[in-house]
């Protein structure tokens, strides 16, 4: 389970680096699809992972506000802080957790297994990063590689 | 391992259904990012899974040509045929396969583990589907849901 999270973390850090070549107004420009802007989409994947995996790990929902993280360095720091919070839990993932169930405030009335939540969070980020890749090409820039092979994960 | 493939197969079938509402010329129109068009991107994920997972399962590379599958029904049939070929192998995936290694014609000189190849193929499709979602919004259409939760996988 951890490998795909490590993939997302490595790719996400490369997107933060990628942002360094892009004017701020392009990072927050409203675009078609996704959560609306490059920076907001990056914030959204950080926020979603922190909420969902934090919930599995028994932590309160951190609920950060985008307005407080409209800055690449601040957002990268938030991303690393959230990762440090959830990594020990994911590193000790066992098959015994797969069918354990959880309910969360933001999906009232639903019951999910830990296995489906973990995979949901993995797929959620990869999907949004695919959107970033289109916006990168629209800016005339090479997107971060989505390849998982060759990353020594 | 199988769950994320089942997710991709379900989402992919929903994208084939989604194509039914879109004029053919929009499906093959060259777009920014991805493999260049909606239909070619769908062909590409089918082709990549057939090649990579087929290789892990010890099958020859099928090497289909896009020109022969520029039709949603034909491509859906190819997708189902390839899935039927690789599903038994994935259904019997065990941790013993994780570190087994393979080399493939299309990445000469590289050696990959089965574990990284399987996850590469999973991430590859989810990433490209994220691109489809942007193009769908550009067409004014609701994209297929990328949610993994709630699919009973």
UniProtKB/TrEMBL annotation, chains A, B:
The keyword Metal-binding applies. SUPFAM superfamilies: DinB/YfiT-like putative metalloenzymes. Gene3D superfamilies: dinb family like domain. Keywords: Metal-binding. It comes from the Bacteria. Pfam families: DinB. The keyword Metal-binding applies. InterPro entries: DinB, DinB/YfiT-like. Belongs to the DinB family. This is DinB family protein. It comes from Alicyclobacillus dauci.
């Amino acid at each position: 389970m951890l490998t795909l999270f490590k993939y997302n973390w490595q790719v996400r850090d490369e997107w933060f680096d990628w942002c360094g070549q892009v004017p701020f107004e392009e990072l927050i420009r409203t675009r078609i699809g996704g959560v609306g802007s490059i920076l907001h989409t990056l914030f959204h994947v950080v926020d979603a992972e922190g909420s969902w995996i934090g919930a599995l790990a028994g932590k309160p929902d951190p609920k950060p506000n985008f307005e407080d993280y409209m800055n690449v360095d601040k957002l990268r720091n938030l991303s690393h802080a959230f990762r440090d919070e959830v990594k020990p839990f994911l590193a000790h993932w066992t098959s015994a957790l797969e069918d354990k169930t959880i309910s969360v405030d933001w999906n009232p009335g639903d019951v999910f297994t830990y296995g489906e939540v973990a995979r949901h969070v993995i797929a959620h980020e990869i999907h949004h990063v695919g959107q970033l890749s289109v916006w990168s090409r629209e800016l005339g820039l090479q997107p971060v590689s989505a390849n998982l092979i060759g990353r020594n994960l």
